[in-house]
Specification:
It contains 8 helices and 9 strands. The protein has 246 residues and is α/β, with parallel strands linked by helices. The mean pLDDT is 97. Bound molecules: NADP nicotinamide-adenine-dinucleotide phosphate (NAP). NADP nicotinamide-adenine-dinucleotide phosphate binds next to helix 1.
Length: 246
């Protein structure tokens, strides 16, 4: 049985993933700010240990990592999933919100990696999983605050894969389409091929066991998003405007 360290475990995909992995018998260290939510999850699953930390605070997350190792042993797999999403576009540019997205989504991952990577290098093993998004593939309407954070994570994951694979450390990125969670509940448009958080968790667990660099789902949606990405930009903009009525 393995020790999974999961950020953003108080709701949505992180919560579903924590419960699914704990149900398989693994030790799960579930991290988030809303300790009341984490306590409810722990109440039903004895092998979930909970830790309050804000990923924006390097010392808090570092402290949570140390405590999780004390109670669960060396971390086998770190799933860096905590994220923030607000639909903000070019007409709503607000540097505070844009900074907030980068702090949680990108720097939150860096703060966790800051203490996890040296430990994995010391152990000459480990598994790093970064939560990206298909929204990172290319510019989308009202995704100007969120999309670039996921594009940055995609580049980061590729760089880490190149640097860390030779040291015995596995690196993967998750790129989901739409998943029903608190984050997407604020969207006022029809989300194509949306899936439940538990279905997303099942797809992720299958992907974690594979040697694929990218765990992406649902398949039909991902194929369309990947095809859009390789179109000449003049056509890409026309198609996206047409699909989204812009
Ligand atoms: N839902 C989708 O369609 C979708 C698609 C692609 C990618 N994703 C990604 O999946 C991840 C999970 O999102 P979700 O959809 O499951 O949304 P969610 O239900 O809103 O979950 C977000 C999680 O992140 C945590 N979090 C937010 N800010 C944090 C902070 N500063 N420090 C620590 N934890 C923080 C939240 O916990 P607390 O508030 O308790 O701290 C919560 O547990 C995100 O990275 C998101 O970008 C989602």
């Amino acid at each position: 049985m393995a020790h999974y360290f999961i950020t953003g475990a108080s709701s949505g995909i992180g919560k579903a993933l924590s419960i699914a992995l704990a149900s398989e018998g693994h030790v799960v260290s579930a991290v988030a700010r809303r300790i009341d939510h984490l306590k409810k999850i722990k109440g039903k699953h004895k092998n979930i240990n909970i830790f309050r930390a804000d990923v924006c605070d390097r010392l808090e997350i570092n402290n949570a990592i140390e405590k999780s190792i004390k109670s669960g042993g060396n971390i086998d797999c770190a799933i860096l999933n905590a994220g923030k999403y607000l639909p903000l576009g070019g007409l709503e540019l607000n540097s505070e919100e844009f900074y907030g997205h980068m702090m949680v989504n990108y720097m939150g991952v860096i703060h966790s990696l800051d203490s996890i990577i040296p430990k994995f290098i010391g152990l000459q093993t480990g598994h790093i999983v970064i939560m990206g998004s298909t929204a990172g593939y290319g510019g989308l309407p009202r995704s100007a605050a969120y999309g670039p954070t996921k594009a940055a994570l995609s580049n980061l994951a590729e760089a880490l894969h190149i640097d860390l694979t030779p040291l015995g450390i596995k690196v993967q990125i998750i790129s989901p389409g739409f998943v029903e969670t608190e984050a997407t509940a604020i969207n006022d448009f029809k989300m194509p091929q949306i899936i439940s958080a538990s279905k997303a968790a099942n797809n992720i667990i299958k992907g974690l066991k594979s040697n694929k660099f990218e765990i992406c789902f649902p398949t039909g949606f991902v194929i369309i998003m990947k095809l859009l990405r390789i179109l000449p930009k003049s056509i890409y903009f026309k198609v996206i405007r047409w699909i989204t009525n812009r």
